[in-house]
């Protein structure tokens, strides 16, 4: 019997606590509503939203905000605090143009009628005039430069040069900014132990004043065919050129070894006649007793090639 009484007492006490907290919450809500229903005066920074700017002009951000003192109820202030307020400046009707500057000096009454509803009273604006310097657009096509660190797995390499798409970007903006841009580098691309084809995208490293510029692309595609490579060697005959009439020379050796680097699938297609090695007699200086061989023709399928013999001995016989 005693246990039942204690449970009933606990239940009544719990209900009393719930009612207490409910009334406390209700009182708090009433207090907040009462506070927010009152009018308050404060100064808020409004961002400038530029619309209908002539296409041939670029605005340089001299005036970026207005400090406006307003009087309105608390609910309206909540909206300003949670959402960055903006004032629209319509360049088709709100500004006047003077030399290289647009001037905005609308009155309080104009702003009050066009930008704010009847529940908001506009008290003051600072500054009362906005100045927007502008420049004429310049259009320039600049090359893209790849900033990359690519390390291939042992025995692998790119079949051809790495392709960038697009390899150039059209930049539109103020002459003072665009004229200084010579190229657009990418952000750094790092690839290690590469053994498969490269197909990725990388962002361009935008100029510091990129907000005043329009770019035809802000990222590019980077592609390359990657294959397994091998080395080969071939004996290539030497051709001596620019020998004067009446002069006969003998060279030793008469052929050189050319080492080349080629993809595995093209290895069997490379033959000696694909290469040409010459020694230019016209480059001989006084007292020179050797010729220097030059590799003047290499097949497109070969990634790189070099001559192992650096000097060729010769004898002049007239």
Summarize this structure briefly.
The chain has 318 residues and is α+β, with helices and mostly antiparallel strands.
Mind explaining what this structure looks like?
The protein has helices spanning about 1-35, 75-80, 110-115, 175-180; strands spanning about 40-50, 55-60, 65-75, 85-90, 95-100, 100-105, 120-125, 130-145, 150, 155-160, 165, 170-175, 185, 190-195, 200-205, 215, 220-225, 225-240, 250, 255-265, 275-280, 290, 295, 300-305, 310-315. With about 325 residues, it is of the alpha+beta class. It folds into 3 domains: about 35-130, RNA Polymerase Alpha Subunit, Chain A, domain 2 (Beta Complex), CATH 2.170.120; about 135-225, RNA Polymerase Alpha Subunit, Chain A, domain 2; about 230-315, RNA Polymerase Alpha Subunit, Chain A, domain 2, CATH 2.170.120.30. Strands 2, 5, 6, 8, 12, 13 and 16 form a 7-stranded mixed beta sheet that branches. Strands 10, 18, 20, 21, 23 and 24 form a 6-stranded mixed beta sheet that branches. It has a 4-stranded mixed beta sheet with strand order 4-1-3-7. The protein is elongated and about 110 Å long.
Structural class of the secondary elements?
Answer: alpha+beta
Count the beta strands.
25
**Would you list the SSEs in sequence order as H and E?**
HEEEHEEEHEEEEEEHEEEEEEEEEEEEE
Radius of gyration, CA atoms, in whole angstroms = 39 Å
Mean pLDDT: 83
The end-to-end distance, rounded to whole angstroms, is 139 Å
Give the CATH topology of the largest domain: RNA Polymerase Alpha Subunit, Chain A, domain 2
CATH class of the largest domain: Mainly Beta
Weakly predicted, low-confidence segments: none
Query: How would a crystallographer describe the biggest sheet?
Result: 7 strands, mixed
CATH architecture of the largest domain: Beta Complex
Q: Count structural domains.
A: 3
């Amino acid at each position: 019997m005693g246990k039942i009484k204690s449970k009933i007492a606990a239940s009544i006490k719990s209900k009393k606590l719930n009612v207490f907290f409910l009334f406390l919450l209700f009182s708090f809500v009433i207090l907040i509503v009462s506070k927010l229903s009152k009018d308050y005066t404060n100064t808020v920074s409004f961002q400038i939203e530029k619309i209908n700017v002539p296409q041939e002009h670029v605005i340089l951000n001299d005036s970026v905000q207005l400090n406006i003192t307003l009087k309105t109820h608390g609910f309206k202030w909540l909206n300003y605090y949670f959402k960055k307020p903006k004032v629209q400046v319509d360049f088709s009707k709100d500004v006047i143009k003077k030399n290289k500057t647009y001037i905005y000096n609308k009155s309080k009454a104009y702003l009050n009628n066009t930008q704010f509803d009847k529940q908001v009273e506009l008290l003051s604006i600072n500054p009362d005039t906005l100045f927007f310097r502008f420049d004429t657009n310049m259009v320039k096509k600049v090359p893209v430069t790849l900033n990359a660190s690519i390390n291939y797995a042992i025995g692998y390499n790119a079949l051809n040069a790495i392709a960038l798409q697009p390899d150039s970007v059209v930049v539109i903006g103020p002459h003072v900014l665009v004229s200084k841009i010579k190229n657009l580098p990418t952000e750094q691309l790092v690839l290690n132990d590469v053994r498969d084809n490269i197909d990725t995208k990388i962002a361009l490293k935008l100029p510091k004043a990129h907000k005043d510029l329009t770019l035809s692309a802000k990222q590019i595609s980077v592609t390359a065919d990657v294959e397994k490579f091998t080395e080969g060697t071939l004996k290539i005959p030497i051709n001596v050129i620019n020998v004067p009439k009446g002069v006969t020379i003998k060279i030793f050796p008469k052929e050189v070894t050319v080492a080349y680097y080629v993809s595995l699938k093209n290895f069997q297609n490379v033959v000696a006649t694909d290469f040409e090695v010459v020694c230019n007699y016209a480059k001989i200086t006084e007292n020179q007793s050797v010729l220097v061989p030059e590799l003047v023709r290499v097949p497109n399928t070969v990634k790189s090639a070099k001559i192992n013999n650096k000097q060729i001995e010769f004898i002049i016989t007239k």
